[in-house]
Write a structure and sequence with these properties.
The protein has helices at about 15-25, 50-60, 75-80, 95-110, 130-135, 150-155; strands at about 5-10, 30-35, 65-70, 85-90, 115-120. The protein is an alpha/beta fold. The structure holds 4'-phosphopantetheine.
């Protein structure tokens, strides 16, 4: 039986750490659905369409990856997509509490969907979308931390020519 995982997140924007989890997740699952949370209550740097475009560009060539957006509860979306698992990356101890709380709540909401954690690769342990935005906003160099398309789009957003 083919196994599908949902890899949910804000992806505002996608980082090389996210890509690492997707690529390693493909060694465990037959298909990964990268699902961007559409959360109108949260102020994002990139629109859903922009985030989808960056994901599509960065993951072209990966046949077993679907890119989508969702609203509402993740477990309902996972159910609708007939997914077997929710895939999340775990960076450091600081991620643990939030991830643990979310995984337990998701399990309470739907016992059929398992959450699977992959430890983030050591190279990406300090990489996050927010730290990248923070650095880029003030002209900091984010080369090597995000895919080329993301680097370009982030610079355009902040009108940063460096
Ligand atoms: O990249 P992020 O912001 O850490 O991703 C968080 C995300 C999207 C996985 C989480 O906020 C989520 O699943 N939101 C949908 C609502 C939901 O189901 N929340 C968890 C149980 S209440």
């Amino acid at each position: 039986m083919k196994k599908t995982a949902i890899y949910p997140g804000s992806f505002d924007p996608l980082t090389n750490g996210h890509l690492d989890i997707i690529k390693r997740g493909l060694r465990l699952f037959d298909k990964i659905i990268v699902a961007i949370l559409h959360n109108p209550a949260k102020q994002a740097l990139f629109s859903i369409e922009e985030r989808m475009e960056m994901l599509e560009e960065s993951l072209k060539g990966y046949q077993n990856v679907e890119i989508d957006a969702f609203q509402g509860l993740l477990v309902d979306y996972a159910n609708q997509k007939k997914a077997d698992a929710i895939l999340r990356g775990m960076r450091a101890v600081s991620d643990f509490e939030y991830e643990f709380q979310m995984a337990l709540m998701n399990r309470r909401l739907n016992r059929e969907v398992q959450t699977v954690f992959l430890m983030t690769g050591l190279r990406w342990i300090f990489t996050s979308s927010s730290i990248i935005k923070e650095a880029a906003r003030f002209g900091g160099n984010i080369d090597g931390m995000v895919p080329a398309i993301v680097n370009q789009k982030v610079r355009e957003k902040f009108n940063n020519k460096s």
